[in-house]
Amino acid sequence: MRQIGLYSPAIHALIDNCPIGSETLITRMLHLLTESPSNSGQLTSFAPSPTPAGLLSIVMPPSSIVDRVRRLYVDRVHDVRCLIPVLVGLTKPEVVAALPRLVLLSDKVVKEVITRLLYASISTVHAPNPLVGKPGHENQQPPVGPPLLGPMTPQELLVAIHLLEFVRQPASGQLGSEVQTPMVDIRSVLRACRVCLSERRLFTQDRLSVAIEQLVEQPVLPTLMMRTIMQALAMHPRLTGYIINVLSRLIRRQGAVRYG
Q1: pLDDT tens-digit profile of 177-193?
Q2: Spatial CA neighbour of 11 closest among 21, 136, 22
Q3: Can you point out the beta strands (E) in the chain?
Q4: Residues linked to residue 126 through DSSP beta bridges, in sequence order
C-alpha cells in the first residue's frame, strides 16, 4: 500500500468512484497512507515520526485527496470517521463542525484525533510520493516548499473542546421538539480535555493563558473551565498572578450579574 502513495492517480480514481460498501476499506487505506512509520519502520496504530525537536510530525495529505474525501463524506458516507485521515487538511470551521461527533467515538479514536490536530499545528510533513522517478510516472514531482500546518492551534482546540457542551442536537422538526438536547455529554468533553492537556509539552504557559482568556470571555462559562484553570496552575505555577486576576474578574462579573 505504501508503494502506491497518496499521490497515485489510482487512489484518486478509487475515491472518486468509490464502490458502494467499500467506504470503510477506503478509509482504512487512507489511514495507512497518512500514518508515519515508527523508528523501527513498522506501522503502529498511530505513530507519527519524531521531529528533531522531539515533537511528533504529522503527515499532511495532498489537497486533492482532502477535497475528494470531503465530497465523499458530504455526498455519501456521513460517517465522521472517514474524515480522520485528512482531518489536518480541513479548515478550522470544518474541524469544529466535526468535533461533536468525533469526541463521542472510542478512547483510542479520540486520542488519535486530538493527537493529529495538536501536533499538526506545530509540524507536518509532506505525504511521501513513491512514484517519483518511477518509469511511467515522469509527471510525478516531489512536493515543493514546506507543508501547511494544521487548522487549529493547541489553545484553539482546547477552547473548542470546552464549548462542545453547548452544541445541541439538530431539531427534528416534530411537534414539541423545540427543546434541543445537548449533542455531547460532559463526560465526553472531560475525556477530550484530559487527552488534550496530557500533551504537556504543547501547552506552554502562554498558550494556556490565551485559552483561559478565551474561556473567561464566553457569555456562559463552560462547566470545566475552573478545572482547566486549576490544571493550568499545576502545570505552570508562574501563572498564579494571572489566575488570581482571572478569578477576581469572575467574582466582579458574578456580582454585576447578581446586583446589576
Answers
A1: 556 788 999 999 999 99
A2: 22
A3: 49-50, 56-60, 124-126
A4: 60
